[in-house]
Amino acid sequence: xxxxxxxxxxxxxxxxxxxxxxxxxxxxxxxxxxxxxxxxxxxxxxxxxxxxxxxxxxxxxxxxxxxxxxxxxxxxxxxxxxxxxxxxxxxxxxxxxxxxxxxxxxxxxxxxxxxxxxxxxxxxxxxxxxxxxxxxxxxxxxxxxxxxxxxxxxxxxxxxxxxxxxxxxxxxxxxxxxxxxxxxxxxxxxxxxxxxxxxxxxxxxxxxxxxxxxxxxxxxxxxxxxxxxxxxxxxxxxxxxxxxxxxxxxxxxxxxxxxxxxxxxxxxxxxxxxxxxxxxxxxxxxxxxxxxxxxxxxxxxxxxxxxxxxxxxxxxxxxxxxxxxxxxxxxxxxxxxxxxxxxxxxxxxxxxxxxxxxxxxxxxxxxxxxxxxxxxxxxxxxxxxxxxxxxxxxxxxxxxxxxxxxxxxxxxxxxxxxxxxxxxxxxxxxxxxxxxxxxxxxxxxxxxxxxxxxxxxxxxxxxxxxxxxxxxxxxxxxxxxxxx
Length: 484
Known about the structure:
Helices cover 5% and strands 50% of the residues. The chain is mainly beta.
């Protein structure tokens, strides 16, 4: 595969040699396949609504990244993705092709994505680096997990400068949303100047001998018609495709986040990580279906910590997190107590079944961010007793931090407003136990296989009625990863 792609790119460069200077081309990527067995992963099995899970699915994904390297100071990067393709699936049931298709007979579907397309260069006669275009951008995390507020592919410009071995600074502008290209997309009216969301951020890592502190700050100007509210808001009926969203036009609001990532390794093999962050958005009037949310506001805290001790045969560790939740009295006024989320391609991943910590496959059964919960866990990671074979055993407990008075009622009597990434809305009366036992074997230098086993005992208050079923959830999946 690598040789074929390289030959094709080389041929293209030869044909264009009269108009451009030659560049070095490097190709890398991955093939992912996973066979997923689940039971009650949606916590709705045997419910009165008659919903049953698909207990077996297969999906695959191919990513190819090409670097066009002019010099050590300049390169262009593109990455393409085919998938995720679910085997046997081509349409949404209504004859319409969409993402995740292309796995049915004839394997036709809309499943090729542009993941990255950016320039990397140094400003001449300086040490200031610039990355411009479609790229992956994430806020820092000292615990090593992905940031629950922002970690996603996005369009933007990132500049970085290293003052010395101790101090550096990164500044970025990103535009995650720009809903309409001109007024005509609205049908009538002059509203296109309220259809963007722009983010501006500063990250200032400070690195010492065996420790690091990384403060960061993000400000966003959010247009009411930008599409951001549609992205973050999920309504009580998680399985409905007919929910509609709307927001007052000609209106903008401000949002900001402040955080710090801390890491201590001076006591190696004992290491410690800590993350603290706060976010706030005072929003617009929006509607979700038939419900209206006047002056929607959400603001809150998120903390996470872990401690690990590296041994010759594995890495025992403790981890935990706490996120503020909603108060029933505030929710009555459309004020929410959870930290607002911007973009989460990966998500906060302390677990591999309830959270998004799987190598590739079914995960996020409970939440992609763990916003509105607290939890604690113990694990032994990277255990190895046989060459090329590793194991991770993890046990965790988590509970909601949202007000128990929101059970079955929530805003406007229609159920609590979900934020992006939440599959289960947990209150202080709802909890869960999760066990992960994951294995990985290196078959060849470039090919590995893995087996991920997961179990969740979800205990939701009976007043939720048929929203959730407390039957245990199980998952077993076998995957293969080829990296080139």
